[in-house]
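Q: Could you fold this chain for me?
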Amino acid sequence: MTTLARGTDTLTRDALTVLQPGFTGTTAPDWLLRRLGEGLASVGLFGRNIASPGQLAELTAQLRAERDDVLVAIDEEGGDVTRLEVRTGSSFPGNHALGAVDDVELTREVANELGRRLASCGVNLNWAPSADVNSDPRNPVIGVRSFGADTGLAARHTAAYVTGLQAAGVAACTKHFPGHGDTAVDSHHALPRIDVPADVLADRELAPFRAAIAAGSRAVMSAHILVPALDPDRPATLSRRILTGLLRGELGYDGLIVTDGMEMRAIAGTYGIERGSVLAVAAGADAICVGGGLADDATVRRLRDALVAAVRAGELPEERLAEAADRVRALARWTSTAGHAPEEIPGSEIGLHAARRALAVTVAPGLGSPETFKPLTEPPYVAALTPVASIAVGDETPWGIAAELVHLLPGTVTGTFSAGDGKESDPGAGESAGRAALQAAGPRRIVAVVRDEHRHPWMASALDTLLAARPDTIVVEMGVPQAAPRGALHIATHGAARVCGRAAAEVIAGL
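A: Sure. Below is the predicted structure, expressed as structure tokens.
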């Protein structure tokens, strides 16, 4: 084990141990290495830290040269939320596609392969899977990150994912407890509120977490949501009733409890990250995730000092902080003995196989069946109707099918269309986007790519305009397919990962 720096007292070490900070750059900065020597036990990685698998392996080796038992965490769900492949799009289709297939063995295999890739790069804690039941179709932040709206389906696939991931030696962190699916607000921006009775929560939201706990999930991540039936005063991350009373007591969970990012507005905007972190540990959280937007030594120092000051002021019991730090160290010990994937992993197409199985193809009435659809032989015009991306996904990750169609049908042309600032709910903006796409397409066959058409009035209006003028338009829905299928051919991919685009492009091109 790493020898800690002299002069770092037990209280300060424990305060550092419960933090999971991020940083900028593709190599570890000096301040981070110094904090690891002083007691910091976890580091969070994001897309900004990763250029390639080889570089990531070098980075994690650099961290372990300073502290051999460091927890290296990442937000790698596959599908829309990818950090390993943030610049290209994921090789794995994501939860909603896996739920659409509903083959738990396939889900386990996908999670295991993803875990093997993470382990080969030195990552040993994954902030996944999302166990949220996506019961509100307006949900702006979960959507295709969920296995689906059915509780039983979400539960069995959450358990399979946990099992597959941890078999590769990577700890699962099941999220977002007690469930972020029944909300139309993104906790990155504000505090969501879920107003349903406790019995509904028990039967619907909590079932996947029970399954995850039974499967041995090593970590659970809390949600920044207010659930009045459980605690009318504080969001789950800061609620002793929810983290200690419900998760620890009623559900019997004894693993690591990690907070969602404390810099998210649902917490930072009301409590501030220092006060929020103290309240979270006091409520029962063991690890404070911070660094998606705040990633510097000043933030780590502020949070460390806030925790130490709260103990000395009698606001946070010292034994609670020590217990939290012990759970972090216990997880680090598990990862060091759980086994790791080999450095070189044979190529696997399990992700593409899953994406192909997840497709739902509908041919317009009177035009036959999917089997009789005549694939395109000439390069089309791809009109990508693009909504504002959620912070969880990020703007930097490419999505769609244009790149894949260019590969299969050289000469394919693409254009991107949006509603414009502040006009997401304006059908008139959609009419303008539709007319612009028609003009840009000229005589080419149009492939319209949408994402959650049901949540975006402008997008539905743009499709109306396109289909009125060009009924032979092919529609590819890469979000949750709530809107009725339309177009000469409608392909629901159940996700926007690169492999989902590839699978849809293969259908269009007749492969």
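A (continued): The longest helix spans residues 318-337.
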